Amino acid sequence: MIKDNQKHLNRIHVVIDAVIIVISYLIAYWLIFGYMGKYPGIPKGVYFSALFFIVPGGLGLYWFFHLYEPMRVMGRRLELFNVLKANLVGLLTITLVLYLAKERLQHFSRPMVFLFIGFNFVFEAVFRLTLRSILRSFRRKGYNQKHVLLIGYSRAAQGYIDRVLANPDWGYIIRGILDDHAERGTEYKGVRVLGHIANLDEILPMNRLDEIAITLSINEYDKLERIVNACEKSGVHTKFIPDYNKVIPTKPYTEDLLGLPVINIRNVPLTDSFNAALKRTMDILGGTFALILFSPVMLVVAIAVKLTSPGPVIFSQERVGLHNRSFKMYKFRSMEVQKPTDEKTAWTTKGDPRVTSIGRFIRKTSIDELPQLWNIVKGDMSLVGPRPERPHFVEKFREEIPRYMVKHQVRPGLTGWAQVNGYRGDTSITKRIEYDLYYIENWSLGLDFKIIFLTFFRGFVNKNAY
């Protein structure tokens, strides 16, 4: 029933999206050729015939960017970002088609295309935000709610309850928990244990449940098959929330081994050859461009470092990178020349007396990191990735922080997801690794561009850079 309702809503959603695409296109056409009075250049029929390709192409991009998945648990910002990505890819595709067919379509209005994409993004964003607001209002009044029963009182159950309570706009109501070990009446944040798992056969016919969430503890998985059979026999939608999220990541990579499901402990998209080649290409092009762009700044800084403090302009330090291999990472020297033993084990802190006057400025603004653009071009580093650490600290953290070494499955970066979220310098290493792992498991070119964009607003000047 739930799946049927979702399919019905998706059909309506697709129709409205198609209407928005057509309206945006017609408004752009009218503004260019009606209001501004420009000559179409090619027959009008060509413009309107293009809609037969643009509408299904646009809907296909929305599907590709997960815009027809349930909005219930998709964040507002993520949804708008996906709408933006879909429209930008659409713009690039139309531009490419016009370029390849320039003999036949050389007079096709480029300004109209840009206007169309702009209107389409704005109208689609307004529609989706309005729809969210309407659904949120309905859920506050008790409509469009999903009633959920949890089976198993475990860490997974507590994590699920925490997230549902923190996001009331999802519209989930947890009716209770069934468990064989917790006493009846045991409560977690207002959600009570109603009875034993054996009571499921009595509860299923009596209650109007929309979903069953199986949240058994890891040592009770022997009951799983029987529970799933009972739930599916009743027709209620069933999902499984495993109680091993400390081991298995959010997006595990699953493969089929002749009918036997195999879950890889960690999905690293950059182990794929195509993804790795794509990222490396971006690093070479972006690193080379940045070297040329920032070369005047680097020249001025080099002169300032040389004039204000004795010692070399460029400081190199051993860091651990891809596949645990060491490399020399370059920076503008921002501290007084030290003994090699002190460099390896001493952490920079606020008000560190070793930092020079010009060093304090270039560290605060991250200008001291610019020589790492050469590391990027060489292949030691990437534009985006986990920040590399010194061997002394790698050995220390690998024993203290679970999954710390996973960060070395990708190239280290000049900037990263942890850095743009404030975890830089003398901050929590544990939290930094959490963000690094999220980046490693969820890598995409879109995420890289987002981090580079955020770096200009959050990453260059940082209160934790000493």
TrEMBL record:
A GO MF label: undecaprenyl-phosphate glucose phosphotransferase activity
Keyword Transmembrane belongs to the record: yes
Domain Bacterial sugar transferase: 279-458
Record keywords, A-Z: Membrane, Transferase, Transmembrane, Transmembrane helix
First-level EC class: transferase
TM ranges: 12-33, 45-68, 80-101, 113-131, 284-305
Subcellular location per the Swiss-Prot or TrEMBL entry: Membrane
Entry's EC annotation: 2.7.8.31
Cross-referenced Pfam families: Bac_transf, CoA_binding_3
InterPro entries per record: Bact_transf, EPS_sugar_tfrase, NAD(P)-bd_dom_sf, Undecaprenyl-P_gluc_Ptfrase
Keyword Cytoplasm among record annotations: no
Entry GO terms, CC: membrane
Mode of membrane association: Multi-pass membrane protein
Chief location category: membrane
Recorded family membership: Belongs to the bacterial sugar transferase family.
PANTHER family: COLANIC BIOSYNTHESIS UDP-GLUCOSE LIPID CARRIER TRANSFERASE, UNDECAPRENYL-PHOSPHATE N-ACETYLGALACTOSAMINYL 1-PHOSPHATE TRANSFERASE-RELATED
Descriptive protein name: Undecaprenyl-phosphate glucose phosphotransferase
Species the sequence originates in: Qiania dongpingensis
Organism lineage string: Bacteria, Bacillati, Bacillota, Clostridia, Lachnospirales
